[in-house]
Design a protein that fits this description.
There is one protein chain. The protein has about 425 residues and is α+β, with helices and mostly antiparallel strands. It contains 18 helices and 9 strands. Strand 2 and strand 3 form a beta hairpin. Helices cover about 45% and strands about 5% of the residues. The chain has a 5-stranded antiparallel sheet with strand order 8-7-6-5-9, with helices on both faces. Strands 1-4 form a two-stranded antiparallel sheet. Strands 2-3 form a two-stranded antiparallel sheet.
């Protein structure tokens, strides 16, 4: 009897039968599901511009660099903007490693190879000194790489242009056209705005302008003094927002309380407490400014009055009625006033220059003419002649005089008893 079990040793019935004429794929066959007979195939639907496709093809066929460097260069060629090949390459490290199908360490070795070959530039990481933050480090294609990848036209040396002019001197018109086209070839290579490159969202998400909301701007000039008290730029802008929410301006609060704010042990807490207070700091600032303006105006008026007095020094003036005569000294430091009804002269005290200038500008007094001086002298003589001399006038001790003498004696006793006893 036979003990061979050909059904176990042979697996003919277990393998699918493919005709010899059909092309069999080496990958495993898709498993059938209940809804469909085979798994649907999918691919990337991004349409790359012709310039990017050509750059990727040239990068993958470039000789002289390792295969890993070619893969990374192809990934960079797919990511760079064709209209600006020398600009920043805004792409994450994870995206470039995925496109080049390399690990992170191999990716950095490939970048070293490309930098050694002079195909990319890796500037140092930027730092925002005022904010104390570090920015991103972007890659750049060099001119050599852009020309090799076809993203930029190769510049024509000036020597070749001169030789072309000499060789084609017979046909001058065509020579000028070719020279002009050769000179502007590099500038017009990608002057148009190309189509969106692959993964356009990368540029939108990583473009620096989209991150400016976290970058501090320029602190206003009147608030920069807060930096000397330990305030950071971010904190200053935050306090400006809090002051606006409270209906105040941080500039007014700082201006009104700066002297106290400098002496505070915890200026940040003190300033935040001021923002929540009910004080009207803007009114205080307006009042202070009005006082300063009034003080400056008073100083200017005083200076103008003193200048006017110096101009009219040594002159005499009379009022509109003719009852007073004013004489300015020759040095302009004092003013003597003569009244018609008084026999003695009086000197103005205080800021008489300002009062004198206002009276002269308003027309209350005017420069004295010879006729005015003679009329004032005659009127004074008539007024003083009717008054009795001091020796002939009777001396009567009235009640008011007695009270004044008593008060005078009491004051003398307090300050000088000996003098009071003598009196």
């Amino acid at each position: 009897m036979s003990i061979a079990q050909h059904f176990v040793a042979g697996e003919v019935g277990l393998r699918p039968d493919f005709p010899e004429t059909e092309n069999v794929d080496a990958s495993p066959a898709p498993q059938a599901t209940e809804d469909s007979n085979a798994i649907a195939l999918s691919s990337d639907s991004v349409n790359l511009p012709w310039a990017i496709l050509r750059a990727v093809h040239r990068a993958s066929r470039l000789d002289g660099i390792p295969a890993r460097a070619r893969s990374v260069l192809a990934a960079l060629a797919r990511t760079v903007d064709a209209s600006n090949p020398y600009g920043h390459i805004y792409a994450r490290r994870e995206l470039l490693t995925e496109r080049s199908m390399q690990s992170e360490r191999t990716f950095y070795r490939s970048l070293d190879d490309l930098e050694t070959a002079g195909l990319i530039d890796r500037p140092p990481q930027r730092r925002y000194v005022q904010a104390g933050l570090f920015g991103r480090a972007y890659l750049h294609l060099t001119e050599r790489a852009a020309i090799i990848l076809g993203l930029a036209a190769e510049p024509i040396p000036a020597v070749q242009l001169v030789e072309a002019k000499k060789a084609d001197s017979v046909d001058s018109s065509s020579t000028n056209v070719r020279v002009q086209q050769a000179g502007t070839a590099a500038a017009e290579a990608f002057s148009y705005r190309s189509a969106k490159v692959a993964d356009g969202g990368i540029y939108k998400n990583l473009f620096p302008t989209s991150l400016q909301k976290r970058q501090p701007g320029q602190v206003p000039v009147d608030l920069q003094r807060l930096q000397s008290l330990g305030f950071r730029d971010f904190l200053i802008f935050k306090l400006m927002r809090e002051a606006r929410e409270q209906g105040k301006r941080l500039s007014d609060v700082v201006e009104a309380t700066w002297e106290h704010l400098k002496k505070a042990k915890r200026p940040i807490c003190y300033l935040r407490a001021l923002l929540t207070s009910t004080a009207d700091f803007s009114f205080q600032i307006r009042t202070r400014h009005a006082e300063q303006i009034a003080a400056r105006a008073a100083v200017e008026d005083q200076e103008a009055a003193e200048s006017l007095v110096r101009e009219v020094a040594g002159q005499s003036f009379v009022d509109a009625v003719g009852e007073r005569k004013l004489v300015v000294d020759a040095d302009g430091l004092s003013l003597v006033v003569y009244n018609v009804e008084e026999g003695v002269a009086r000197r103005e005290a205080g800021q008489w220059q300002l009062r004198f200038a206002k009276a002269l500008q308003n027309g209350q007094i005017r420069p004295a003419q010879p006729d005015d001086l003679e009329a004032f002298a005659q009127a004074r003589c008539r007024a003083t002649s009717s008054v009795l001399p001091a020796v002939d006038a009777p001396r009567i001790a009235t009640e008011a005089v007695t009270e004044n003498l008593a008060l005078l004696k009491g004051a003398l006793r307090r300050f000088s008893p000996a003098l009071a006893r003598a009196v």
